[in-house]
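Render Magnesium transporter MgtE in 3D.
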Amino acid sequence: MVSVGDSDLEATTRLSKRALRAQALIELTEMLAPLRAPQVIAVLERLSERDRAVVYRLLPKDLAVEVFEGLGPALQSGLVRGLGDEDVAQIFARLGPDDRVSLLDELPATVATRLLQGLSQGERGSTAAVLGYPAGSIGRRMSPRYVAVHAEMSVAVALDRVRSRIEDAETVYTVPVIDDDRRLVGVMSLRDLMRAEPDHARVDQLMRPPYSVLASSDAEAAARRCADLKLLALLVVDEEELLVGILTVDDALRILEDAESEDQARIAGSEPLRRPYLSTPVHAIVRSRLVWLLVLAIGATLTVQVLEVFEATISQMVVLSVFIPLLIGTGGNTGNQAATTITRALALDDVTPRDFRRVPVREAWTGMSLGLVLGTAGFALAALFYDPSVGAVIGLTLLAICTLAATVGGLMPLAAKTVCADPAVFSNPFITTFVDATGLIIYFLIAKAVLSL
């Protein structure tokens, strides 16, 4: 998305807030006039919900609709609460069916029902068609507004059809080809149509095999396919190969961006924020992090219990406690690296649950190699400053912990994917807790064996 520079954005936001406090609405309108939609969106994302509604009301009608479409569903929902019913109804009617569904998912049922009832019969039907697909499916994110041509049409007739639908269609650059039963049989680009002889060529002579995806398919997987194939639009069909919608590349990239944000948040041990950071209330940020911190704090009690079990071992050789942060930190970092790599590989389809045997073996070898390097360094340093026997304990522990952590880190995302859970949830926070406890057990067992404690 195009945006203003950081300094211009800060200045515009600051002046907007000052004008709002002074009730200088004419000055604020003049300030907003030269801005384009992406720039206005960047400013709105930094305002409070009340100020956002005031600024939005000052925008010209066409710009207001474009700005509303560019906001995330959570911000749209907040803006709806600050606008009058008539304003909301007009904006809602001008949204595409897929954008309407995203907004409806954020609104209370009573508000959603009222907005749907205010639509024309045709718009209500197209929106209901998208709403009928399960949450998380690409059918819920596709647009039913497309221009399809029949295989037996001449190029001239097909071009006339595209021109007649150019204002309503989501895109005209990708033109699906269907048969008399509306089954998808091919696809062509607008360039193909415009380059052909209008009166002497038929659509079936120009079309090529289509790329399509089932409407019930996972939205992220469909968006990933659209991006991987570098398509301007991916066609969406039902179980009978009937064309039901289209996924444009901008919508695909938005889906992937949302999925990436969610994965990164959960890998870090929090829930994703559903709106820009500066427009998210502090209590919502606290709520997104608190549950995970409580879960991890409970998990950390395993580490405390392990230390209690080996308290006698530590008391016999206090120096062992010095290396605990090093060992559990190294194990956690190694496991996190492996989990992040495999989670990303799963998202890109480089790895699938069918690789359940290959991935742990590769990660075990990787962890062992890392453990040999780190263990050798640990042995040398511990032997130099303490004792060769202590160095042997540290070196062997690093070798064992790195091997275990990498193996578990590679295995957990695959296990999550197998049971249809989010791989990111099983990654860094839980792996760190698991490796901390098991790493300490390994450490003290090796210490007892090598030092005869």
